[in-house]
Amino acid sequence: xxxxxxxxxxxxxxxxxxxxxxxxxxxxxxxxxxxxxxxxxxxxxxxxxxxxxxxxxxxxxxxxxxxxxxxxxxxxxxxxxxxxxxxxxxxxxxxxxxxxxxxxxxxxxxxxxxxxxxxxxxxxxxxxxxxxxxxxxxxxxxxxxxxxxxxxxxxxxxxxxxxxxxxxxxxxxxxxxxxxxxxxxxxxxxxxxxxxxxxxxxxxxxxxxxxxxxxxxxxxxxxxxxxxxxxxxxxxxxxxxxxxxxxxxxxxxxxxxxxxxxxxxxxxxxxxxxxxxxxxxxxxxxxxxxxxxxxxxxxxxxxxxxxxxxxxxxxxxxxxxxxxxxxxxxxxxxxxxxxxxxxxxxx
Length: 347
Prior knowledge:
0% strand
């Protein structure tokens, strides 16, 4: 059986991806509105839909580790190290939703929510992940785990990529990802992110060719990316803003991957260690960062209410504090449960 070499630039990409996820969620109470300060528009264009990076690297690593694939073993592993932590962490979160803070997005979408039975609420939360903002991702990615034989079938017939990938990209442009208020539409996110996952697989399958091609045409790719980034700033109120963000983040995956590959030996040791920590702890940080943010938000609302007024300093402070506390929490859990932490927080 073919074995694959550990590649640090892939690891660093995963570290960057989870930082994007956290950053997008630590937007405090900011919304993009008419007359919004420019800094808010810029931050939104940078961080929003960082999920694309997370799904891209998931698809890349799936194809990269394909030689180890066995459907039964693969599914059992994902249930143990992704679904089980999701279920365990969901217990206190669901209790919090029942007794302290009902999920506003859910009862706004379903006015009869308060008439639902306890069992119906629990099932709805677990199936949709709407009890905590980032948790919609787990039910969606589990569907990808279930259909993983289809991904293997595609990768074993790589000529199909040139037909399947463009079709999936078109679907993603027409079927937008769910945003706050409709994250319960898991099927919608499932279809939208299929192109991203498949793009990651394609990138891994043809990585040598793509990197060689990138070397020849890097300036075209860079100019195209910054053109798209400029358009997301200019048209932040447009009806097709989400489509611009989607294409922009797909190109960002390409650029990040290329530059991490090119600079693998030149990245300072401290930055490598920093990104490595987030890559190693990525699932743990994913599972707990928003809980930490909600606790911080509750503290600030009581002690420093004016601090929650959006500003660049406030955002950077809460972002950095959430990252730090997330890493610290994961390290503590891994120290207390060195052999069981993967069942609790996925890492």
